[in-house]
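Standup notes
- DV: blocked on the single-chain target, sequence here:
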Amino acid sequence: MPDGRSAVFIDGQSLHHAAKSLNFEVDFKRLLGEFQRRGPIARAYFYTTVLENAEYSSVRPLLDWLEYNGFVVRTKPSKDYDDGEGRRRTKRSMGIELAVDAMEIAKYVDNIFLFSGDGDFRSLVEALQRRGVFVTVVSSLRTKPAPMIADELRRQADAFLELDDLKDAIARI
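- DV (later): unblocked, structure below
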């Protein structure tokens, strides 16, 4: 990993599910501290969807804490739709927002840590690399029943960090 400034991008849904599968909860203060030890952080982003019409969201206290403690928090309402077979589904993707922010900050950083296992981010990683950014993907191969990291995303990244190996440094105590 090159020296220089870094940015952290957290796909909230992906990180939550991976950590839960590995039997721990993320302490975001410890997570930020862990990555600040690796070099200066220009910006840390957190992305999640929230229920559109819920009066109270269980994720709201976390989002408030993240905003107060230096994270850029991006949210949007989750969308319900019909899957074409009469079933209601919920769309919970923040991929476009994350990709736009990553491309905008790419000229100001040398490294990006992407907390996601979503294979849809493979082309984003490739585009960031073309701009000279070193991309480390943080996810898990050890989750059960299947790895949380898409193989194509892991292969495209410059480096892969196993979330389970970070457990002692970032888990809520």
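- Follow-up: The mean pLDDT is 91.
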